[in-house]
Amino acid sequence: MANTFGAESTTDEVLAGMNLKGKRILVTGASAGLGIETARSLAAHGAQVVGAARDLDKAKRATEGVRAAAANGGGLELVQLDLASLASVRNCADALVAAGKPFDVIIANAGVMACPKGKTSDGFETQFGTNHLGHFVFVNKLVPLLKPGARIINLSSAGHRFADVDLDDPNFDRTEYHPFVSYGRSKTANILFSVGLDRRLKGRDIRSAAVHPGGIQTELGRHLTPELIAQIMPAGPASFKFKTIPQGSATSVWSAVVAPASAVGGRYCEDCHVADVTNDPASRQGVRSYALDSERADALWAKSEQMVDERFNIG
């Protein structure tokens, strides 16, 4: 596959010349940062975007520019979704299924990062519960709405290198909590969920991929203290080249509507290309092999079903 885009490509560059009129695309986390830019770029190229957000009032204010940029039949509607509450997740998904309008793409963009130890309303550790389990239930319940040829894009992170999932102690009941270990577990789970979805759904011509947007300064970093920053950037933030928000959103839209589905299905993408597998601890690029392990993906799927007390026989 020819790679014509890279780390500095923006959403508008990736989508240049594309006509998404008639496409219906769901984006979670559509009230800040990458979610807003992802929604804006897709609506500007004709897509009907459904933006999911925990705080609808905030989302309405934040997405004024999305509506202003919409063109060629594109538009935006908002729905309420709190990924830290399975009641909210199920209510939102059930309402969308009842409406019966199909989707071409789901971009599971929302998440939290490196927050203090806490629990969701259902008693799950905050990062694993929000970043993985909330999307696990939400996406699975929306599978009946996906058209043949649809894609599911799960936002992961290079942070998956901090830790593999811990299926014996996912809520840190017996493990000492560390914000970035927790974040790493949840981001590895996002990749493994993509692997599991892709294996189950590709026979129905529905593919799933995970993406790393890159390092971007957004609201996601609200919990980062100087001590935490020093742990991941020993030389300081000045040593790291951050992406702009349009650059950070580019891999999401590239994977969702530009790249061949067969190329990205079941894979992890970064900088608008499919990432190489590497277990080199010094590498700042690529994906760890444990995050793409199909047996690990099935084990996480089973554990997730057990935790949320719901079974999803989707493929």
Question: What's a concise summary of this model?
Answer:
This protein is an alpha/beta fold. Helix content is 39%, strand content 14%.
* Radius of gyration (Å): 18 Å
Tell me the structural class. alpha/beta
Output the strand order for the largest sheet.
Answer: 3-2-1-4-5-6-7-8
As a percent range, the share of strand residues is 5-15%
Largest sheet: 8 strands, mixed
Corresponding CATH superfamily: NAD(P)-binding Rossmann-like Domain
Do you know the CATH topology? Rossmann fold
The figure for the number of domains is 1
Mind telling me which CATH architecture this is?
3-Layer(aba) Sandwich
Give the total of beta strands: 8
The unreliable regions are none
CATH hierarchy, class: Alpha Beta
Mean pLDDT: 93
Helix content: 25-40%
Please tally the helical runs, counting DSSP H or I stretches of 4 or more residues.
Answer: 11
Query: What is the chain-wise order of helices and strands?
Result: HEHEHHEHEHEHEHHHEEH
Task: Describe the overall structure.
By secondary structure, the chain is of the alpha/beta class. It has a single domain, classed as NAD(P)-binding Rossmann-like Domain (Rossmann fold, 3-Layer(aba) Sandwich), CATH 3.40.50. It contains 11 helices and 8 strands. Strands 3-2-1-4-5-6-7-8 form an 8-stranded mixed β-sheet, sandwiched between helices. Helix 5 packs parallel to helix 6 (126-142). The protein is globular and about 55 Å long. The mean pLDDT is 93.
